[in-house]
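About this split. The held-out portion is used to measure sequence recovery: a designer receives only the structure tokens and must propose an amino acid at every position. Recovery is the fraction of positions where the proposal matches the reference. Here is one held-out target exactly as it appears in the evaluation file.
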């Protein structure tokens, strides 16, 4: 199996959450942009840029939280082992 497929399978849940977050964010951004501009094409264009960047940031944010939780659990396990 290719490395890319392994990575996709490993992060399947986070990628699914990122995808759903992306769809919601685009919808909200399009509505806000339309309310501000009154222009459908401008609102669609604006709504695709910012949420796309946010979706990528969310994926890495989620990975950072997972890493932080693993480290915390490791420290707690080490502290229990020392007691």
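Reference sequence for scoring:
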């Amino acid at each position: 199996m290719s490395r890319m497929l392994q990575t996709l399978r490993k992060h399947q849940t986070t990628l699914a959450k990122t995808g759903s977050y992306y769809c919601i964010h685009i919808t909200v951004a399009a509505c806000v942009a339309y309310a501000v501009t009154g222009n459908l094409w401008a609102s669609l264009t604006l709504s695709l840029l910012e949420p796309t960047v946010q979706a990528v940031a969310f994926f890495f944010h989620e990975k950072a939280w997972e890493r932080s939780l693993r480290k915390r659990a490791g420290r707690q396990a080490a502290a229990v082992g020392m007691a």
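Annotator remark: The mean pLDDT is 88.
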